[in-house]
Amino acid sequence: VGYGKFKYSDECDGSVRIWNVKNPQDPERMFRFESPVTCVSFSQYRPQILAVSFYSGLVLLLDIISRSIMVKASNSHYPTYYPVWQVVWYPHEPLETGQCLIACSANGRVFKYKKTRFFASKKIMTVSNPHGVVQGVYRPRKCYSRKITSKLNPSVEVLELHPVDPSLYLVGTSEGCVFICSVNHRHHYIDVFMAHSGPVYSIRFNPFCSKVFLTCGADFCVRIWAEGIFDPLMTLESGLSPVQMALWSPLHSTVIVSITGPNIEIWDVRRRISKPKSSTVSPSRSFNTVIQFSSNKYNLCVGDVDGNVHVLAVTEMPFSPMFQEEVLAQSLQNALMSHPLLLRRLWELG
């Protein structure tokens, strides 16, 4: 678990703590840092290596076997000086050459790190404000001043790798846009669409259908999209609070779990999209920040702004269907019966 700050005005140090569910009182390991932690991610091939990003722009690889801080690699010689919001292991790199990291920062840049002597970064994309009319959802026009022009790039809030194509990845920005990028094109993105009227907080592909993915953001809703169709297939909204994170269930292709304020909501788009199927208040009643399914797929880990981590059991779930992709496709078709043009485009997509 990484500990940092949630609000911009907060002042605190950072730490990484390794917990065991058999001992919820004291962590097995605790590493303290001067800068708040923004993201942690375990390596798939070397599970003792933990990638940690910081608010100061520092990215390092931490070996959690040692009780003291054992840094395997760090970008301290080439820092970015901007908060690094997320780090993702790039699994398609050959293991002989060393696994790579892809990180997104608040200055609109996406970096690729490779374990070398100085852990130098390579810029693979710079996200800028799109020009002209952007396809996607409608966004109210902002009132821009003609005297003051800003050349700052939007912050890249979230990054998600494509589950099938190893060269593609999606990034969500603070302006509400989702950019479809490729690791082979450093200066140009493939496509862009407006997903939300506020910052995009999460992008997740469906584990049973790689053509369907969801996004959630600060405009109080979760939207479901399909590749090549830049109109939302579904919009899930339950209140007037930003959706901090949303996940697909690893057992059901039509079940989505989201966190909105202190509430943990479970949606089943196969049965109802007007309101969540279940809504549970966090035991600490604090603002939730992150959720993650456990490896057995039946438990849900929830973290909040107070540093609490709750492990919840997901009970009374329906049986998993035999043909997950067909059930998801039928659910999307039922929701689009009143939109024949969008339904036809979905059929053409296959």
Verbal overview:
This protein is mostly beta strands and 350 residues long. It folds into two domains: 1-136 and 154-194, 7 Propeller (Methylamine Dehydrogenase, Chain H); 240-349, 7 Propeller (Methylamine Dehydrogenase, Chain H), CATH 2.130.10. It contains two helices and 26 strands. A four-stranded antiparallel sheet has the order 4-5-6-7, with no helix packed on it. A four-stranded antiparallel sheet has the order 8-9-10-11, with no helix packed on it. A four-stranded antiparallel sheet has the order 12-13-14-15, with no helix packed on it. A hairpin with a 7-residue loop joins β6 and β7 (71-74). The longest helix is centred in the C-terminal third of the chain and has 12 residues, at 324-335. The two termini are 40 Å apart. The model has no long low-confidence stretch (mean pLDDT 88).
CATH superfamily of the largest domain: YVTN repeat-like/Quinoprotein amine dehydrogenase
As a percent range, the share of strand residues is 35-45%
Strand order of the largest sheet: 4-5-6-7
Domains (count) = 2
Provide a brief overview of the structure.
With 350 residues, this protein is mainly beta.
